[in-house]
Write a structure and sequence with these properties.
Strands 42, 43, 46, 47, 48, 49, 50, 51, 52, 53, 54 and 55 form a 12-stranded mixed β-sheet that branches. An 8-stranded mixed β-sheet has the order 40-60-59-61-62-64-63-57. A 6-stranded parallel β-sheet has the order 20-19-21-22-38-23, sandwiched between helices. The N terminus is likely disordered. The chain is elongated and about 140 Å long. Helix content is 30%, strand content 17%. The N and C termini lie far apart (126 Å). With 1954 residues, it is an alpha/beta fold.
């Protein structure tokens, strides 16, 4: 069957699907065929399961075909049987049946005939994935650029054989041998347009955009086809919150970012759903999301009926999905009609995918059925535009006066999303739970509307939560069952619900029943045929005035045999106005208001206000007042300002309570800075190497702020005063403002220039770390490609253009820090910021403990909310009911005016009237609200209470700039007329301009702030502290401007209450956020730390005794609510409360308002504890009140009250306040305007100072107040569950509610899972199929509460500036190192001689001269300060010089170090990474990392009596240093250069570095030290550490010691290095001798370097003085290359056995370098001549002092040891490894017990605890600390040292030793005049004989110690050396080291000299 056979049906879409369905059902085992109409229009569920089946490959072309096949159906794919080709024809892939080649690569240069109207396109064959087949297709059957207007069917020609007239794509696909296994479709296989390039060759062009041809057609990428954008009204369809987003018009079913994933639908003929969008064969982000977190959006479900569908064949005659109607722009005021009417539901929703995703809008919905005419003059009659929310089913056409109605798809979207609630459950389980039914949805909607109050507006979030709760409750048992069985993120139900559903027949009755109790607020209209009749009836009722009391009309069309149709009409004037205005974008909102102002539509409002005043126009009253009182008022007011000065009695006019806080860092700012630093270090420490902190030398930064001039100046101010620029070394001492401006950038149109300079600096300075700080980071997150705002706003999208540019992302030295109080928009599924890189502001309290000991308490949103709860007498959040009532009344009178205009004009009127009332026009009190009167009274009177005239600030927030200008002009004019221009200032705060204030006030500020600059003007709001003023704060959003502490009132009554997103609300309330002093005496307030105030919790259950200064209105607004709050509900209660407010504010307002029986109350009384407080609380409060409040009270209370005790007075004060609160409002003379002598009753305390100690009072619109103060069932404020930001949207309605106890981190994870950015958001394109690499590695987010009242940088600004400071210090610390800085020891013992062998400027020693130099036996290295002194007859030692200077455990802690900056010639550890080092460290691209080979190397050594087997690990890159045998690649030798070789870039001496325990910290990176010179460096490691060293140093040669040396000391390493080197020298001599080179010409030196040598210095001597003895010297850091090459160039260098250098000290004196060369001990860094020292060995058993021992052996062998005094090595202090890696512990117990050195030896055969340590180590440690037990006569007896034969052992600093060698011909000191106090024989060999010992003289009682390997050799030694002749031995004088027998202890015998 199918249309590829003879007698084919006409290929309409319907017939094609019908036949496919029949064919599929015949082949299928399933008895139930798939619904035809589901396939035809809305193939819904079939894609989801296949999309789940496997992850998509990224390559779109290779895999797209098979992917699409998999996505076609959820059932097993039905194999498609191709029509068998005719016999004899060609069947080769890529050729047509005529045998002609169709492949593009073959015929791209051929001329192809293309008929007119045809286009060449490329077809993809599944068998040739890499080729395109060329076809000619009639362009009428191809889509246009928008993916639309393609005719159904096909017409094409074969370009190979030229055959024409293929009318069916099936037939054509057969001809070109596509060999398909699925149904041929042109959409699937015609992929690309083909175009000719400049050379005329045919090439692949753009993708064919099949978006609109069929709903299930594939979608091309958004970048290809989204050039045409249309703007949708602002909203998020899933949340009801405002937002506006442009979407690709070409893709109605899948606007970018919100691609709907497939949703399984009920298999009923009446149910269908839109198909999923697929991008170029890859899953859309949303489909990927389904796999990740089950939170996918689901496609719109269109629930229609077949009975109303009409004949299927007629569907395509009037409409197709490509119909132009679907691309029309949406207009709020219009409901465009589509000429081709469709009588079915399927076609009526062509545009709904846009609307569903974009949110409420005036919809061009295609109607069905009869048209409905909108009556004329509807707006005029109803005073509001009804808003129609389309619900379920069909929606009729609207015609006529359609400008007077607004149609929105918002409710439809909500219904659709709620229908898909169960899908998330179904995806991981087979059983099905029914979604919430349409009937139940509608019924729940009615219930919701019924319970709304008349002043409430429906919120879509509320409805979504209701649906969610209802669904979960109805399936609770199944959900729980699944949760118990499979614990997943979402439960998987197992059992279908058994609850009886609401039927369509019951629905109207139940809805009517629900609405019967609401007093006609909700009206139900039931219609039997279609919604058209219901809408017509509704319009009729509206015109007749029968719906005056009705806010909502619900129209239901339900019958038994079909699904319901429904819509809801908002007819309430207030609700309709709010909802329609909420659909305006910010720019549309401004345009509308501006239009109304410019066209004069507001004049009617002005004239109406004029009629309100019975005395005539307010302006006339003002003019009259001005004329009458011109002289009197101004003089009286100015006198009144100075009057308190006289009352003060002090004679000073200065306010003592005003103080300018100094800048200081707060504890929690330091904590935040340290957290930021910790995150930076974490990035640097990660294995990704995204940040190499070690390569940076300094810090630079740029702070990006919104384009607000005040914010810009404020940041400059903080930056200037922080001193950070000087601290970072970026600027010099004399800092100018112009220089500071280089570090702050306004994100405006000119930002590009400054940012370009920043980028250039970052590229030119790779060793500088640039920190890009994006302050107020939630501002302007628009994508640079999409803009909601007018093109005049050039700054839009600038953040995306600059901060997200490729240069910033890729620069390895730029770290971006986003700083914001509202991070939600940066926490989406596509965010650039890793959750691990978020830093949240720390909580001040934890379990009741003050963590930071702050004297300030943050007062934020949660505290404001808390103040409204019952039990708090002073609510800080309020609304003005009389103002709201007037606005609502005027809204009905002026329906065409925007409510923002009305609200602004009303508020201006109220302020104007209040100012007039305060100035004496008492009749004007009736034309203002008491709240406004309170604000105005306190503002005007505030400056009169302070000797200096300090006053309060009132912030009047007017977002719309034109309205703000109108308000400023009006209030300014009123103030002038009332002669108040010197009393308070009115400031227009425009984001784009600076602050302008009058000269009089500038002078006042200069006096207060002690500023002498003549030209000074305030540039930030912080500098207005103490200035009495009204700040009109304009701009759509605050942009980070901070407000001063004198802020008292925050009037937010004009904020856009329809813009209900969390960020907007919290941002507006953040203006009032405050740090108050926590020491102030206040009422006890129970405050939950919610939202910003405690960032670690959304809300806390801890009740703290918060001391919040809440002086203000005591508005006792109590009402019987579910949750008692301090509210004012109507004008009467508002009047009462305002009387109480004024009474409570008597110290700031006028006493005549107080009832006659009351007296002026001190604020302390108002704020004292309630009488219910317990005694303890009272006592605690009393102590505070006694100090301050008592004196104040006594000044103002009558004498009788003064006699009362404190408790009574407080109680009486409270009673009086309560009584005055409850007294009725009176307009008698007691309430009249204040007289000027009334100020005698006022306290003289500065009002500004009081205001600065308490949070401001905030006035909100009623709608916002209700949202802010209402909570959900868990106690979470409702505002928290709103959409977080206007440019993001919820990923799904099926999301859990936020929890009250969520921490900031949990909030972030919640938003990261449940929000996605809209296309207008800059993060929209940042997605990589859910992989982690979408996060930018060097991007951080700092979020903290809004803290705008921060005169001293108390908030985030101070924190990130402190972060820059400590980051800079850390980088400096990283470039610094602690090196040992100690003077040489035993200098006073050195024989001072006037004889100098060399001149100070000599570069090399003269061999003959050097041979004459005596050897200095004394050790001068400060690390041997605790070692035994080596004596010679030349030395005279003061016995007091050698006292025990250190204890054992102080060995490493008390050595003196100094911090040095690393030079460019330093050696580095493994933490250093730089580009130059990459190859050196093993990152050479030619070699694989870790590619190295292991080579064995054996040689025999007679002294050990066995062959030594060593192993070399040689990286491939270092093999050229070695010689290998040719056949077997066996290691033969290490190459050695010739003595005569000279090269500037080559070090001849191989360097060996023995190391243990320092794989990370050892300084093995010698690349910089060697200045890039070629050198051979070998690490000598123990076998057990081989792997770890190889891991950290993959490109270093390793010499691995045999396993027997695993527990050996450094002596073993030195021994093997030397013996190996000599053996290698012999091998090289033999090898090169064959090449004709003499053996003595082979270079014999090696370098043995300590692993802590970090830098090397050279002294430069200048001998240019007149006399030979005159010289100057300087020391500088040089490369190791320079030093080694200098030493290697020494004349006759091969005659020296050991060459070394000084240890660096900052205290090096002139005498030390006067002789440039010394013959003395050398340590740490030596050049060893292995040839000369062939017969002198290191002692392989030694752990300590082995270098001293070796030096003595070398000297006694007659060899030369030379120290270059002009060179010095710096040694880094490394706290790990080395000698410290040896731990002496008990062998029996594993518990670490401290063992003293006295326990290191024991008597043989005793039961002493054995130790797990080498015997040699125990011996050396014991002798170091307890040798006085063996040599008691030697203690501090330096003139009689211990004679030590053939070895040097450290006997401690208080015993001197004399070294002698028993070797024949050795050099020894003359012992003729010496008498020894002891004799030490250590493992003496055959060279020691009895006659040798008898040459020495000993004191009587001198002691002997003989040490041998075992007891037998001990006895043999005593006999062989005839010791018993002169020494007396006792049995008890035999000892051994505390080792077990298997550990081979050392034995020693002591005796006394006879």
């Amino acid at each position: 069957m199918g249309n590829s056979y003879a007698g084919q049906l006409k290929t309409t879409r319907f017939e094609e699907v019908l036949h496919n369905s029949i064919e599929a059902s015949l082949r299928s085992n399933n008895l139930v065929p798939r619904p035809i109409f589901s396939q035809l229009y809305l193939e819904a569920e079939q894609q989801l399961s296949s999309l789940e089946a496997g992850s998509r490959a990224d390559n779109e072309e290779e895999e797209e075909d098979e992917e699409e096949e998999g996505s076609e159906s959820s059932s097993p794919p039905v194999s498609y049987q191709m029509k068998p080709p005719p016999e004899g024809c060609c069947t080769t892939d890529g050729f047509c049946q005529a045998g002609k080649d169709l492949r593009l690569v073959s015929i791209s240069n051929e001329h192809i005939e293309v008929p007119s109207g045809f286009l060449l396109v490329g077809a993809k064959s599944p068998n040739l994935p890499d080729h395109l087949l060329v076809c000619a297709v009639d362009k009428r059957f191809l889509p246009d650029d928008n993916g639309r207007n393609a005719l159904l069917g096909f017409s094409g020609n074969c370009v190979g054989c030229g055959k024409k007239g293929f009318c069916y794509f099936t037939e054509f696909s057969n001809h070109i041998n596509l060999k398909l296994t699925t149904q041929p479709k042109k959409q699937k296989h015609l992929k690309y347009y083909l175009v000719r390039n400049a050379q005329g060759a045919l090439t692949k062009g753009s993708v064919i955009c099949w978006k609109g041809a069929e709903f299930r057609g594939r979608q091309s990428s958004s970048s290809t086809c989204s050039s045409t954008l249309f703007q949708l009204p602002e909203s998020s369809g899933l949340s009801g919150s405002t937002a506006s987003e442009p979407l690709p018009a070409a893709n109605p079913s899948a606007p970018a970012g919100t691609q709907q994933t497939a949703a399984a639908i009920d298999h009923t003929p009446s149910t269908a759903a839109f198909s999923s969008a697929v991008y170029n064969g890859k899953e859309s982000p949303k489909q990927q999301l389904v796999k990740n977190n089950l939170s996918a959006l689901t496609r719109p479900s269109v629930l229609g009926t077949l009975t109303n569908s009409g004949p299927p064949k007629k569907r395509h005659k009037g409409w197709s999905p490509e119909s132009p109607s679907s691309t029309e722009n949406w207009n709020l005021q219009l409901n465009p009609q589509v000429p081709n009417r469709i009588k079915n539901d399927g076609g009526s929703l062509s545009s709904l995918p846009h609307s569903a995703l974009a949110g409420p809008a005036s919809s061009p919905m295609v109607g069905s059925g009869e048209p409905v005419s909108v009556p004329d003059n509807l707006l005029k009659i109803c005073k509001a535009k009804p808003v129609i929310f389309k619900g379920h089913g069909n929606f009729p056409y609207l015609c006529g006066n359609i400008n007077d109605v607004i149609v929105s798809p918002l409710l439809y979207t909500c219904y659709r999303n709620s229908q898909s609630l169960s899908r998330a459950y179904e995806q991981y389980g087979a059983s099905t739970i029914q979604p919430i039914s349409e009937e139940m949805q509608l019924l729940l909607t009615v219930y919701y509307l019924v319970q709304l109050a008349s002043d409430q507006v429906p919120l879509i979030e509320d409805l979504e939560q209701i649906f969610m709760r209802s669904w979960r409750e109805s399936h609770l048992s199944e959900i729980r069952q699944y949760q118990q069985a499979v614990p997943q993120t979402f439960p998987q139900p197992q059992v279908p619900s058994q609850i009886a559903p609401v039927t369509s027949a019951q629905l109207p009755w139940l809805a009517g029943l629900a609405a019967s109790s609401c007093n006609d607020s909700v009206h139900i209209i039931e219609c039997s045929y279609s919604l058209a009749e219901g809408l017509s009836e509704m319009f009729k009722l509206l015109i007749e005035g029968k719906l005056i009391k009705t806010n909502y009309v619900v129209i239901i069309c339900a019958s038994r045999n079909r699904a319901i149709d429904s819509c809801i009409v908002i007819t309430g004037k207030y609700q309709a106005r709010v909802l329609s205005e909420s659909m305006l974008t910010p720019s549309d909102y401004q345009k509308e208001v501006n239009y109304q102002l410019v066209t004069g539509k507001v004049e009617t409002l002005g004239s109406f206000f004029s009629t309100l005043c019975p005395e005539g126009d307010i302006d006339l009253l003002l003019e009259k007042f001005y004329q009458e009182n011109q002289g009197h008022i101004s003089s009286a007011l100015s006198a009144s300002v100075n009057k308190p000065t006289a009352l003060n009695g002090t004679g000073t006019a200065a306010c003592t309570s005003y103080e300018i806080e100094r800048h200081q860092i707060r504890p929690f700012q330091l904590a935040v800075a340290q957290k930021l630093l910790s995150h930076i270090c974490s990035i640097a420490d990660s294995s990704t190497q995204n940040l190499d902190l070690g390569s940076f030398e300094k810090i630079d930064f740029l702070i990006c702020v919104p384009p607000s001039e005040v914010t810009y100046q404020q940041t400059l101010f903080h930056l200037w005063h922080s001193g950070i620029l000087l601290e970072l070394g970026l600027e010099k001492e004399h800092l100018t403002k112009q220089r500071v401006e280089q570090y702050v950038m306004k994100l405006d149109a000119e930002a590009q220039i400054k940012f370009k300079v920043f980028l250039q600096n970052s590229m030119q300075n790779p060793h500088t770390l640039f920190v890009l700080i994006h302050d107020h980071a939630h501002w302007d997150l628009m994508s640079a490609m999409h803009s909601l705002y007018p093109q005049t706003e050039l700054s839009t999208g600038v953040v995306d253009r600059l901060l997200n540019c490729r240069e910033v992302k890729e620069a390895p030295n730029i770290v971006t820090l986003h700083v914001t109080s509202f991070p939600y928009a940066l926490q989406t599924q596509h965010t650039h910021i890793s959750p691990y890189n978020e830093i949240h502001w720390p909580s001040s309290y934890s379990n009741g403990v003050d963590l930071y000991h702050e004297n300030r308490k943050y007062f934020g949103l949660s505290e404001f909310i808390e103040s409204t709860l019952s039990g708090h007498s002073i609510p800080l959040l309020r609304y003005d009911s009389s103002f709201e009532a007037m606005v609502m009344a005027l809204g009905k009178r002026f329906p065409r005016l925007h409510s923002a205009v009305i609200r602004t004009f009303v508020l201006i009127q109220h302020y104007s009237a209040a100012m007039m009332a305060v100035c004496g026009l008492s009749q004007m009190k009736n034309y203002t609200s008491v709240e406004t009167l309170e604000i105005t009274q306190n503002l005007i009177n505030s400056s009169r209470q302070c000797p200096s005239g300090h006053g309060l600030m009132v912030v009047l927030r007017i977002p719309c700039t034109p309205l703000a200008a109108v308000a400023y002009e009006r209030l300014y004019n009123v103030r002038e007329r009332l002669a108040l221009e010197d009393n308070f200032e009115i400031i227009l705060g425009n984001p784009n301009s600076g602050i302008t204030i009058g000269k009089h006030f500038v002078e006042q500020l200069k006096v207060w702030q002690k500023i002498e600059d003549v030209d000074w003007r305030p540039q930030t709001y912080l500098e207005l502290e103490g200035l009495p003023c009204i700040l009109i704060f304009s701009g759509m959003d605050p942009q980070g401007e901070s407000l001063p502490r004198s802020l008292r009132y925050c009037d937010l009554r004009l904020i856009n209450s329809s813009s209900l997103v969390r960020t907007t609300l919290e941002q507006e309330l953040g203006l009032a956020a405050y740090f108050v002093s926590s020491e102030i005496h206040t009422e006890k307030a129970v405050v939950n730390d919610v939202l910003e105030s405690d960032p670690e919790k959304l809300s806390s259950t801890d009740n703290e005794d918060e001391e919040i200064a809440t002086e203000g209105s005591t508005s006792e607004k109590r009402s019987p609510m579910k949750r008692e709050r301090s509210r004012s509900h109507d004008s009467a209660s508002s009047s009462l409360s305002s009387k109480a407010s004024i009474t409570a504010f008597c110290s700031e307002s006028s006493p005549p308002l107080i009832a006659s029986g009351d007296t002026a109350k001190s604020p302390h009384q108002v704020l004292s504890n309630s009488t219910e407080e317990n005694t303890n609380n009272y006592e605690r409060q009393k102590q505070k009140v006694d100090k301050g409040a008592q004196t104040t009270i006594s000044k103002h209370l009558p004498p009788v009250t003064e006699q009362l005790d404190m408790k009574q007075s407080i109680k009486s004060a409270q009673i009086s306040i309560t009584s005055s609160s409850s007294s009725p409002f009176s307009s008698s003379s007691s309430s009249s305007a204040p007289t000027h002598n009334s100020f005698i009753l006022q306290t003289s305390q500065c009002s500004m100072t009081k205001a600065s100690k308490q949070p401001p009072i905030v006035f909100l619109p009623k709608l916002v107040y209700d949202i802010i103060t209402s909570t959900d069932s868990s106690g979470l404020p409702k505002s928290s569950s709103l959409l977080p930001y206007h440019s993001v949207m919820w990923a799904s309605s099926f999301r859990p509610l936020m929890s009250k106890m969520m921490t900031c981190t949990e909030q972030s994870l919640y938003y990261r899972q449940w929000t996605v950015p809209k296309p207008i958001h800059m993060d929209y394109n940042n997605r990589n199929e859910g992989r982690m690499d979408t996060f930018h590695p060097r991007r951080l987010l700092l979020s903290g509460p809004p803290q705008v009242c921060n005169k001293n940088k108390i908030g985030k600004t101070g924190a990130y500036l402190q972060f820059l400071s400590i980051l800079s210090r850390m980088l400096i610390r990283l470039t610094e190192v602690d090196v040992y800085d100690e003077e040489e020891i035993n200098i006073n013992i050195k024989e001072e001689s006037d004889q100098y062998y060399h001149q100070p400027g000599d570069m090399w020693p003269d061999l003959e001269t050097f041979k004459k130099m005596p050897f200095d036996y004394t050790i001068h290295d400060p690390k041997y300060e605790d070692a035994s002194l080596i004596c010679s007859k030349l030395q005279t030692i003061n016995s007091e010089d050698r006292s025990m200077s250190r204890r054992q455990d102080d060995m490493y802690t008390r050595r003196q170090t100094t911090r040095m900056r690393l030079s460019k010639y330093a050696a580095y550890n493994t933490y250093h990474h730089c580009e130059q080092c990459h190859q050196y460290m093993g990152f050479n691209p030619r070699y694989q990392l870790y590619e190295s080979t292991l080579h064995a190397f054996a040689f025999s050594y007679s002294m050990l009596g066995e062959e030594i087997q060593l192993h070399f690990i040689i990286p491939k890159s270092k093999e050229h240093h070695f010689v290998f045998s040719q056949p077997g690649r066996q290691l033969e030798s290490m190459r050695l250069p010739l003595v005569t070789d000279k090269s500037e870039d080559y070090i001849k001496s191989p360097t060996f570095t023995p190391t243990t325990g320092r794989h990370e910290h050892g300084l093995f990176n010698l690349y910089h030290a060697m200045d890039g010179a070629s050198h051979l460096h070998v690490l000598v490691v123990k076998e057990y550490e081989m792997a770890i060293y190889k891991k950290y140093w993959p490109n270093h040669i390793m010499l691995v010691l045999p396993s027997i040396f695993n527990s050996a000391g450094v002596g073993a390493a030195h021994f093997l290095i030397k013996e190996l080197s000599y053996h290698n020298l012999e091998l090289e001599r033999n090898r090169q001798e064959e090449l004709g080179i003499k053996p003595q010409d082979i270079w014999p030196f090696i370098v043995i370097s300590d692993d802590s040598c970090v830098m090397w210095n050279a002294v430069e001597v200048d001998c240019s003085g007149d006399r030979k003895s005159d010289y100057t010297w300087t020391e500088r850091n040089v490369s190791l290359k320079q030093i080694l090459q200098h030493i290697e160039a020494t004349p006759n260098v091969t005659h020296y056995a050991l060459i070394g250098m000084r240890k660096w000290s900052s205290k090096t004196n002139r005498a030390e370098i006067k002789e440039p060369f010394s013959c003395c001990h050398v340590h740490d860094f030596i050049m060893l001549n292995v040839d000369l020292t062939q017969n002198v060995q290191y002692n392989q058993n030694r752990f300590t002092c082995d270098d001293v021992d070796f030096n003595l052996r070398v000297h006694s062998a007659g060899l030369l040891i030379c120290r270059f005094n002009h060179f010095s090595a710096m040694k880094k202090q490394i706290a790990v490894g080395g000698q410290r890696s040896f731990h002496i512990k008990s062998k029996v117990s594993d518990t670490p017990v401290s063992i003293s050195p006295a326990q290191y030896i024991c008597a043989p055969d005793s039961k002493h605890t054995f130790l797990a340590a080498p015997a040699q180590l125990l011996l050396e440690k014991y002798l170091q600390y307890h040798s006085h037990r063996f040599f008691p006569l030697s203690l501090k007896n330096y003139s009689h040292p211990v004679l030590s034969v053939d070895c040097y052992l450290n006997l401690g600093p208080q015993i001197a030793v004399c070294y002698v060698s028993s070797r024949p011909h050795s050099l020894n000191i003359s012992s003729s005049g010496l008498t020894f106090s002891g004799l030490l024989l250590y493992l003496c060999d055959s060279f020691v004989v009895a006659s040798f010992l008898k040459k020495f003289h000993f004191l009587k009682g001198a002691t002997l110690c003989v040490i041998c390997q075992d007891r037998n050799s001990l006895r043999q030694t005593v006999v062989r050396l005839e010791l018993e002749d002169e020494w007396q031995f006792r049995l008890r004088d035999e000892f051994q080291t505390a080792n077990a027998k298997e550990d081979r202890p050392l034995f020693f015998l002591t005796g006394r000299h006879i």
